[in-house]
Design a protein that fits this description.
The protein is built from six helices and no strands. It is mostly helical. It comes from Amycolatopsis heterodermiae. InterPro entries: DUF305_CopM-like, Ferritin-like.
Length: 184
């Protein structure tokens, strides 16, 4: 009965991704060494989704310096950048530790909170108030979904370091949502 919990959690994570249940089975992670733990399907699904979500959010936030009209939007995006960049380093390290490929297995998928390549094109080709509106809406949706996914990882993940990373990322996303709410 206990072994089914990670599988159920992975399905819940996939369902929270707006119907995208596609994950690429990773090569099995290397056997854990002393003090290391195994990654379960929830850990794998969380990393496969959260890394590209955070990469795209960081890319979007970086665009504010050249495209935003509102000083509040520029300031909020600038405040988010170091956090996003720091989490990317940690997320990629966890992904590598899990033995997962760097490829985005969710490329082209429409999921809550995922800033897509089309969204990035729209941001790059807009300026002023249109850019501000788009960016804030995308980053708010991203922060909200990161919190949902982080809670799922903390509840059902197996790897303690990945669960701690989810806790930290969820807390940061909550703060980011609050910063973005002050731009309105």
């Amino acid at each position: 009965m206990r072994r089914t919990a990670p599988v159920v959690a992975a399905v819940v994570v996939a369902m929270s991704m707006g119907g995208c249940a596609t994950t690429t089975p990773a090569a099995p992670a290397p056997p854990p060494g002393p003090g290391a733990s195994a990654f379960n399907p929830t850990d794998v699904a969380w990393l496969q989704l959260t890394v590209p979500m955070t990469e795209n959010a960081a890319t979007a936030a970086h665009l504010a310096a050249d495209h935003a009209a509102s000083p509040a939007v520029r300031s909020a995006a600038s405040a988010l950048e170091p956090s996003q960049d720091g989490f990317l380093t940690r997320l990629r390290a966890a992904r590598d530790r899990a033995g997962l490929p760097a490829a985005n297995v969710h490329s082209g998928h429409q999921m809550p909170g995922m800033i897509t390549d089309a969204d990035l094109v729209a941001l790059r080709t807009s300026d002023g108030a249109d850019f501000d509106r788009r960016l804030v809406a995308l980053l708010r949706a991203h922060a909200k979904q990161i919190v949902v996914l982080a809670n799922g990882e903390q509840a059902s993940g197996a790897d303690p370091a990945t669960k701690a990373l989810a806790r930290d990322l969820g807390a940061a996303a909550t703060r980011e949502g609050e910063v973005l709410d002050r731009t309105s």
